[in-house]
Write a structure and sequence with these properties.
About 75% of the residues lie in helices and about 0% in strands. The chain is mainly alpha-helical. Helix 1 runs parallel beside helix 7, helix 4 packs parallel to helix 6 and helix 5 runs antiparallel to helix 8.
């Protein structure tokens, strides 16, 4: 493997890292169970997180609620705000108790809240429940990559991260499609209740497969008890190390912009197609969300491309393709809108698969939980902030100006990715560590 240049040195691991012999490798039975568990976790987390996106126009039209498009979009931002605000708490708990039990607790919380969303009596209560749902989702989102780094041999990390990201895309797709399809025969409450039932099944699958893939107790990362003060001190040190490490901080800023742009596009895409001249129903709009399948392809291809061309090059190409996809959505034809959404989504998840795995490996095993939690914080802060703010150009100036704002965000992200590539060198991330 190509060594990382000096600016991209890994954060120095703490003493006592798990030996390489405890890590799972491709071909092992427990490795396959881990893949199944991570895929299921990605599905359950993101199906619940983004299911309301497909029924935002129905939530906006709820009798007695008197909402605008940007207010309805707060349904998504509330959950991602709760997620962003709590990822570091989950990271501290994972250091104390281990990743697997904390992920199980987080999936339980978010699934329970999914059922509560369907019976929210008013918009304020709906937002409060969505915040709690986001807090639950934060456990999986924050710890997934750290869990992978702790459990899998370094050469297999990009592939396993790609499987997890594939699960998140299937989850995002299934939540949106199921929500839109059920909205055709029920109201938005019935559609979200159906998604909650699907999520319950996948949460059970994660617990089963995750338990089957667990290492022996003596090798469980993070399972060694330690004093709360020591955990808090270590985490504070990790935060400073991660935030001041240039390549890691660059990836945080990059994903903030990319995720905000993606969520904004999906938030207001439904409103755009529900308005003249298209006037599409929620069920027909839901067909466009099959573009999310491109994310599964993009995530899988990104793992192979990163190994061959380097993470920096793969990331820069992915962001450039996002820029192209956003530009295509400026065309009026429905086919062009679908193609632009597909390209944008595919490229985003390619970038996300590369960046998420890169952060954990640069940080090293002992800081991977904190580094990944910070990655999730910036990821979902972008969703909560930009996913909402980008709605104002849409409401006041229409689709064209909205897309131009997205293009500006993607250009800024592209410049940042090229700067990161220039500082690390094109082959820098074949290993991710020095």
């Amino acid at each position: 493997m190509t060594a990382v240049s000096t600016p991209t040195r890994a954060l120095e691991p703490a003493e006592g890292d798990a030996g390489a012999g405890t890590l799972l490798r491709r071909g092992e039975a427990r490795y396959r169970m881990l893949l199944l568990a991570l895929f299921a976790a990605g599905v359950v987390t993101f199906a619940q997180l983004y299911a309301p996106q497909s029924v935002l126009p129905l939530i906006e039209a709820e009798p007695g609620w008197d909402l605008s498009a940007s207010q309805a979009a707060l349904t998504i931002s509330a959950a991602t705000f709760g997620l962003a605000a709590s990822v570091l708490v989950w990271a501290v708990l994972a250091k104390r108790f281990g990743a697997f039990p904390i992920i199980c607790a987080s999936l339980t919380l978010t699934t329970v809240m999914s059922f509560a969303v369907a019976v929210a009596p008013d918009f304020g209560v709906l937002l409060a429940i969505r915040v709690l749902q986001g807090i639950g989702a934060a456990g999986m989102a924050a710890l997934a990559v750290a869990y992978i780094v702790e459990r899998v041999s370094p050469r297999d990390v990009p592939v396993v991260a790609g499987i997890y990201v594939s699960g998140t895309t299937i989850g995002g797709l299934s939540g949106r499609i199921a929500g839109a399809a059920l909205a055709g025969v029920a109201d938005w409450r019935g559609s979200l209740l159906g998604v909650a039932l699907i999520s319950l099944l996948f949460a059970g699958l994660f617990i089963y497969a995750g338990w089957r893939s667990r290492p022996r107790p003596a090798t469980e990362a993070g399972a060694t008890p330690s004093a709360d003060h020591a955990v808090a001190t270590t985490t504070a040190t990790d935060l400073v190390e991660c935030l001041t490490h240039r390549p890691v901080a660059g990836l945080y800023l990059l994903i903030f912009v990319l995720m905000g742009s993606l969520v904004a596009l999906y938030n207001y895409f439904a409103f755009h197609l529900a308005d003249p001249p298209y006037d599409l129903s929620a069920a027909r709009v839901g067909l466009f969300y099959f573009a999310y399948l491109g994310g599964t392809v993009g995530a899988r291809l990104a793992g192979s491309a990163a190994g061959r061309f380097g993470r920096g090059t793969t990331l820069a190409v992915a962001v450039t393709l996002m820029l192209a996809g956003a530009g295509v959505t400026l065309l009026d034809e429905l086919g062009a809108l679908a193609a632009g959404l597909l390209l944008f989504t595919t490229a985003f998840f390619a970038a996300h698969a590369v960046a998420s795995g890169w952060v954990g490996q640069i940080a090293g095993p002992q800081r991977s939980a904190t580094a990944s939690a910070l990655y999730s914080l910036f990821y979902y802060a972008g969703s909560a902030v930009l996913g909402w703010l980008f709605g104002f150009p849409y409401e006041h100036f229409g689709w064209t100006i909205f897309v131009l704002v997205l293009l500006g965000g993607c250009i800024a992200a592209a410049l940042l990715s090229w700067a990161l590539l220039r500082s690390t060198g094109p082959g820098s991330a074949r290993s991710g560590v020095s």
